């Protein structure tokens, strides 16, 4: 079966709470291979650029503030059916609606501080991964 890639970030709330290792363990246990990974912090300007698709949404300003409030762990992942399977693994945006056993059910605090990001298409996975990692950092 051919593999494809997805992009994720462990968000500031989950990093600050010390859930990085547990979340990466769940991701690898679900069959995803790490292609690139680092720890960094976005400026509000960079967060604004990353979330540009949401700039007309009411939550955009708060989201950019929150996503630049602390360190994050961006990761490129590879697996068969990576984008859809990863969104199943993380669960619904609002943790109140997330399935039992999903990363957001376990670690998200609110609709905004929801522990983790997952790309919504192959095309966006490519754009988002390249936002954080040079080609020479992707293996
Ligand atoms: P993500 O992009 O982080 O994987 O999340 P998603 O697809 O499930 O949700 P999306 O609609 O793309 O929203 C991006 C992020 O914005 C925050 N958000 N806050 N307060 C609100 O109503 C609200 N809605 C969304 C969340 O952090 C969400 O993950
Ligand atoms: Mg999204």
UniProtKB/TrEMBL annotation:
Bilayer-crossing regions = none
Identify the keywords attached in UniProt to this record, alphabetized.
ATP-binding, Kinase, Nucleotide-binding, Phosphoprotein, Transferase
Single GO biological process annotation from the record: GTP biosynthetic process
Which cofactors does the annotated protein need, by name?
Answer: Mg(2+)
Q: What class of enzyme is it?
A: transferase
Superkingdom is Bacteria
Q: Sorted alphabetically, which InterPro entries does this protein's record hold? A: NDK-like_dom (IPR034907), NDK-like_dom_sf (IPR036850), Nucleoside_diP_kinase (IPR001564)
Does the keyword Transmembrane belong to this entry? no
**EC number annotated for this UniProt entry:** 2.7.4.6
Q: Which SUPFAM superfamilies does the UniProt entry name for this protein?
A: Nucleoside diphosphate kinase, NDK (SSF54919)
The active-site annotation reads 117
Q: Which residues form the Nucleoside diphosphate kinase-like domain?
A: 3-137
- Indicate yes or no for the key word Cell inner membrane: no
Q: Name one GO molecular function term.
A: nucleoside diphosphate kinase activity
Residues reported in the UniProt entry to bind ATP: 11, 59, 87, 93, 104, 114
Similarity section:
Belongs to the NDK family.
What's this protein's name?
Nucleoside-diphosphate kinase
Give the species: Dyadobacter flavalbus
Species classification: Bacteria, Pseudomonadati, Bacteroidota, Cytophagia, Cytophagales
